[in-house]
Design goal:
Number of strands: 11
CATH class: Alpha Beta
Number of domains: 1
CATH topology: Replication Fork Single-Stranded DNA Binding Protein
Distance between the termini: 50 Å
Helix content: 25-40%
Order of helices and strands: HEEEHHEEHEEEEHHHEEHH
Strand content: 15-25%
Number of helices: 9
Mean pLDDT: 81
Radius of gyration: 21 Å
CATH superfamily: Replication Fork Single-Stranded Dna Binding Protein
C-alpha cells in the first residue's frame, strides 16, 4: 500500500503536468449507485486500497468518448443510440479524435461539437458502504463494493489528500477515514459539492476485516476497458466521422469492435458493448462543465460509468447533449469536410 506522502507526490506531479498541458466492467451488482440516494441525504463510504500494489493510488481513472448516432442500419433507424469507446490517451498515446477536435475550441461555433466528443472522466474506487438511504433490491454477498466517482466528487477527495493536516491515508485499516457523499440539487442538476471526509478517523471493525480476508480486494485494472489496438483506434476514428456526419450506426462496419446495447457482432468478435437500457431509477443529471480553453484539457464532466463496459446504471449521470440548431448542423457539415480534406492531404 502506498503511503500518503507517495500519493501526494504523484498527485502533485499530475497537477503540474496538467497545468503544463494547458499552457502549451462488469455485469455484477457490486457497483453502489450513490447517485440514487435521495436529495438531501448522504451515503457514507470507506475506501479500500487496490489489490494491485503497483498502483500508487486507491482508485483508477477512466476516460471514455461518447458517440451518438440517430439510429442503426438494418434496425431501428429512428431510435438514437450511443456508443462509448475508450480514449487511447488513457494509456498516454495520442488520440486522433482529440487531435481533430482540439482546434475546434478556437471557433465559438464549434465549441459545442468539440465538447460533445471530448473524453469524459470517471474514477473507480472500492470499499464498504457504512450508511445509506438507498433501499437496494439485491445486495451482493460480498460487502466490498465498487464506486464510480464523478470529477466533482473526485476533486474533493484529492484536494483533501493534499492537505498537510490530513493525518493518515484514508484507506488505512487502523487510522483511516470515511467519506460522506452528500447529495443536493443546484437548479436542475444533482450537486455533490458538500461531500467531504469524516472529521475523525475510524478503525475497521471485525466484520469489515473478515470481509477483506474472506473476499479479497478487487484489482481495479479489471474494471478498465481494454486498450485499443492500432486497428481499434482506426475504427474509433471512422465511428467519430460517421457520428459527426449524422450517419446511422452501421453494424457491418463497427459492431465487431464497439457496439451499443442490443446490436450483435456479425462475426462474433468480442466487441465492447457500451450501453444498456436505462435503470429503473433515472439519476439526476450533473451540471455540465465550463467550456475549455482552445488547447486546454476541458474541465471534467458528469458521472461516468464503471467496469470495462459502461452502463447507464453504473454511470449515474450524464451531461445533457447540446441542443441541435441549424447553425450546429451547418458546423457539423463543415467540420466533416475539414476532417476529410485533412485526410486527403
Amino acid at each position: 500500500m502506498a503511503s500518503l506522502a507517495e500519493i501526494r507526490a504523484k498527485l502533485l506531479a499530475q497537477e503540474t503536468k496538467s497545468s503544463g498541458t494547458r499552457s502549451s466492467g462488469g455485469g455484477d451488482n457490486a457497483i453502489f449507485a450513490h447517485w440514487n440516494i435521495p436529495e438531501g441525504t448522504s451515503a457514507t463510504l470507506r475506501f479500500l486500497p487496490d489489490s494491485d500494489e503497483t498502483n500508487t493510488f486507491f482508485w483508477k481513472e477512466r476516460q471514455m468518448i461518447r458517440m451518438e448516432f440517430p439510429g442503426v442500419v438494418g434496425g431501428d433507424e429512428h431510435k438514437p443510440v450511443t456508443v462509448q469507446v475508450p480514449c487511447i490517451e488513457m494509456w498516454g498515446d495520442s488520440c486522433p479524435v482529440h487531435a481533430e477536435i482540439r482546434p475546434w475550441f478556437k471557433d465559438p461555433s464549434m465549441e459545442d461539437m468539440a465538447r460533445k466528443y471530448w473524453k469524459k472522466r470517471s474514477y473507480i474506487f472500492q470499499g464498504f458502504v457504512t450508511q445509506s438511504e438507498i433501499k437496494e433490491d439485491t445486495v451482493p454477498e460480498n460487502p466490498i463494493r465498487r464506486f464510480v466517482i464523478s470529477p466533482q466528487i473526485f476533486k474533493i477527495i484529492s484536494q483533501a489528500l493534499m492537505d498537510p493536516d490530513f493525518p493518515e491515508i484514508p484507506t488505512d485499516y487502523e487510522a483511516g477515514t470515511d467519506f460522506r457523499v452528500q447529495k443536493s440539487t443546484k437548479g436542475q442538476y444533482a450537486d455533490y459539492s458538500t461531500s467531504n471526509w469524516a472529521r475523525r478517523e475510524r478503525s475497521l471493525d471485525q466484520v469489515e476485516r473478515d470481509a477483506i480476508t474472506n473476499n479479497g480486494l478487487f484489482n481495479l485494472n479489471d474494471f478498465l476497458p481494454k486498450k485499443p489496438s492500432a486497428e481499434d483506434v482506426g475504427i474509433i476514428f471512422e465511428m467519430f466521422e460517421a457520428s459527426v456526419d449524422g450517419q446511422l450506426y452501421d453494424p457491418a462496419r463497427f459492431a465487431d469492435y464497439y457496439r451499443p446495447y442490443g446490436v450483435e457482432a456479425p462475426n462474433n468478435r468480442n466487441a465492447a458493448i457500451s450501453s444498456t437500457p436505462a435503470p429503473a431509477t433515472a439519476p439526476a443529471p450533473v451540471a455540465p462543465p465550463v467550456a475549455p480553453a482552445p488547447v486546454a484539457t476541458p474541465a471534467p464532466v458528469a458521472e461516468m460509468a464503471p467496469a470495462p463496459v459502461a452502463t447507464p446504471a453504473e454511470m449515474g449521470a450524464t451531461t445533457p447533449a447540446p441542443a441541435t440548431t441549424d447553425d450546429a448542423s451547418t458546423s457539423a457539415a463543415d467540420i466533416l469536410a475539414m476532417i476529410r480534406q485533412r485526410k486527403e492531404n
